[in-house]
Amino acid sequence: MSNQPIKCKAAVAWEPNKPLSIEEVEVAAPKKGEVRVRIIASALCHTDVYTWSGKDQEGKFPCILGHEGSGIVESVGEGVTSVEIGDHVIPLYTPECKECKFCTSGKTNLCQKIRVTQGQGVMPDGTTRFTCKGQEVFHFMGTSVFSEYTVCAEISIAKINVDAPLDKVCLLGCGVTTGVGAALNTAKVTKGSNVVVFGLGAVGLAVIQGSQLAGATRIIAVDINEKKYKLAADFGATDFVNPLSEENKDKKIQDIIVGMTDGGADYSFECIGNVETMRAALECCHKGWGECTIIGVAEGGKEISTRPFQLVTGRVWRGSAFGGVKGRSGVPEYVNKYLRGEIKVDEYITHNFNFEQINDAFTALKGGDCIRAVMHY
Ligand code: NAD
Ligand code: AHE
Ligand code: ZN
Ligand code: ZN
């Protein structure tokens, strides 16, 4: 146990859309049921960019963003039993308390034990552990890994194999687990099926990886950035469609897919966060059985629509958060799968930066050549 605050560097988002500022922050000691983690590596997910942009209804500023990270337990608060100092861990934005109605339902990974305070940018007791220049700074997604030290609830910490390279498996804190899990757990892609993936960032590529693991025979990759196709092919995509190409620009993407697949996709996934492509992803599904999984996060205030007839005639719209993976029980297993060579992780890392260069990571992810930029602390 430690009851001393720590002073360290963190990337503070003072207000939306302004570069993050590397500041000295004070990180209070973990309280009862909390864990303080020294972050070793993190990666930037599009959701960080989304909240930073000010379009997230739950965005609170000033805050410390970051939810795809890894680290080592530095100290634990009273009553913490599941981890100890020195354990290697991945902070979880989808905690797992193992006792709430959601955890015990057997139907979802969406533990709700601390969801309300997490969305308010504070710890479960309603207060923050971060202070900068005398001002309180909000947490983000219960993780705030863009800080050399962070405090998380014990239920938001997955203990992982100490042999795993922390600057790689940080990607299992969101993008890779989300995509692979959406294919395997949420959609339950079946052997021999055809799959369509909209958006070829880390999440879409991971859906392709999961679909290939599930035995899909045809995987159609859709993106307006053709530079993404090479990596998509490496992950198992068999066909590539650019909705904006000269050939396609006057057609509806859903019609193109239906034409390519003798009636539509068995499974489609939206990994962009755009309500128009969410509609297209549903409407490209095969009549009678095609299932569309929404993974992308749309701007606050946006809504999806389609003709109800699309659903009446057997297409299904569903959503997936963190790939349906239960954090504390599932993430350590994903890490072990990576260590056994059963899932790829390194291949998503296109950029590496020192933590202080975090604004360059934002520029890279928005620039179109980056899948994941890893920050080293
Ligand atoms: P990313 O920005 O790296 O990738 C998005 C891709 O979509 C890019 O390749 C881009 O070129 C492509 N794209 C953009 N507009 C397009 C269009 N109109 N048609 C076709 N392609 C288009 O993002 P990411 O980190 O892979 O995240 C993808 C989405 O998933 C984001 O919305 C993110 O917030 C969300 N996300 C959700 C979860 C979850 O648990 N549900 C987890 C992680 C990320
Ligand atoms: N705050 C947003 C919702 C954002 C969202 O949907 N987040 C996903 C994870 S994205 C990770 O990159 C998620 O897990 N959602 C479930 C949850 O409980 O937040 C908003 O629209 O208010
Ligand atoms: Zn994410
Ligand atoms: Zn729970």
TrEMBL record:
BP terms from Gene Ontology: formaldehyde catabolic process
Single Gene Ontology MF annotation: alcohol dehydrogenase (NAD+) activity
CC annotations in GO: cytosol
InterPro entries, alphabetized: ADH-like_C, ADH-like_N, ADH_3, ADH_Zn_CS, GroES-like_sf, NAD(P)-bd_dom_sf
Cofactor names: Zn(2+)
Enzymatic reactions: a primary alcohol + NAD(+) = an aldehyde + NADH + H(+); S-(hydroxymethyl)glutathione + NAD(+) = S-formylglutathione + NADH + H(+); a secondary alcohol + NAD(+) = a ketone + NADH + H(+); S-(hydroxymethyl)glutathione + NADP(+) = S-formylglutathione + NADPH + H(+)
Keyword vocabulary terms for this entry: Metal-binding, NAD, Oxidoreductase, Zinc
Enzyme Commission identifier(s): 1.1.1.284
Start and end residues of each Alcohol dehydrogenase-like C-terminal domain: 202-328
UniProt keyword Oxidoreductase, yes or no: yes
Protein name per the record: S-(hydroxymethyl)glutathione dehydrogenase
